[in-house]
Amino acid sequence: MKQDKTWAIIPAYNEEKDIKGVIRDTKKYVKNILIIDDGSKDRTYEITKREGVTAVKHIINLGKGAALKTGCDFAVKSGAEILVVLDADAQHEPKEIPNFIRSLKDVDMVFGYRQLEGMPFILKFGNLCINKITQLLFKIRIRDTQSGYRAFTSRAYRKIRWKASNYSMESEMIANLGKHKLKYKEIPIRTIYTDRYKGTTVLDGIKIVFNMIWWRLTK
User: Fold this and answer.
1) What kind of architecture, by CATH, is found in domain 3-218?
2) Distance between CA atoms of 21 and 31, rounded to whole angstroms?
3) Residue 148: exposed, middle, or buried by beta-carbon count in 10 A (0-12, 13-18, 19+)?
4) How far apart are CA 12 and CA 14, in angstroms?
5) pLDDT tens-place string over residues 41-86
6) Burial of 43 (0-12, 13-18, 19+ CB in 10 A)
C-alpha cells in the first residue's frame, strides 16, 4: 500500500500538553496526519496548525465518536485506503503504526489490545465485563474491546461506520464488524497510563452495555 494512501486519524480534546509530541512521533511513520480538535478550550488547535498537519476543528465538543467519524470521513474523501486511529494523549505509541499496517494485509480491521499489567483496576474490571458481554451478544471474541488504537481499510470503514458520538462507538464498530462478517486480527500494544487519564468511566461503561443490547436487538 502506498504511503500516501495511509492516514493517521487522531481526535483531540484539550491536549495542548501532549499533541505536539504525538504529532512529531507519528510523522516518523505516516505522511498524512489528521487531527480533529473536538471543541478544545485550550491551545490544541493552534499547536496542531503550527506542526504543519491537516487539522479540522469542531466548534463545540461533540464527543470522541463524532470527532473520529469526522476525521475518517475526511480521510476517505481525500483518497485514504488505510486508516490508523489513535489517541492524542500520548497513551498510544506511534512507533507501533507499522505493525498495524503490516497486520492489515490479509484482514479488514486490526485491533490493538492492551496488556493487563499496569492497567488501573477499574479499567481492567470494566473492560473484562464488556469483553464478555460483547462475546455473548455478537459472538465475537476480542481481548480488548475498548482499546482506541485500531486500523482498518476504507472499504471496511464504510461498513463499520458508527452513529454513536461518545465512547460507545468503539463497541458499535465491533457490532457492525460482526454484522458484516469482516475479518479481523489482534496485536498487542503498550499503553502508557497517566494521572490525567480521560478515557471510559464507570458511567460510560454502563451506557456502552445498554447500547450494545440495543444494537443486538436492532442491527
Assistant:
1) Alpha-Beta Complex (3.90)
2) 16
3) buried
4) 7
5) 999 999 999 999 999 999 999 999 999 999 999 999 999 999 999 9
6) middle
Burial bucket for residue 67 (CB in 10 Å: 0-12, 13-18, 19+): buried
Grid cell in block for residue 138: 455478537
CA angle centred on 207, ends 124 and 70, rounded to 5°: 95
Beta bridge partners of 10: 35
How far is Cα of residue 138 from the mean position of the Cα atoms in its chain?
20
* H or E stretch at 29: none
Give Dmax over CA atoms of the chain in angstroms: 46
Give the span between the Cα atoms of 152 and 81, in whole angstroms: 9
Helix axes 169-179, 202-218, angle to 10 degrees: 20
What predicted TM-score, i.e. pTM, was given to this entire model? 0.84
CA–CA distance, 92 with 17 (Å, rounded to integer): 15
The DSSP bridge partners found for residue 109 are 152, 184
Tell me the chain's radius of gyration from C-alpha atoms: 16
Q: Domain residue spans in the chain? A: 3-218
Are the C-beta atoms of 199 and 167 separated by less than 8 Å? yes
- Say if residues 165 and 66 touch (Cβ distance below 8 Å): yes
Whole-angstrom Cα distance, residue 151 to residue 149? Answer: 7
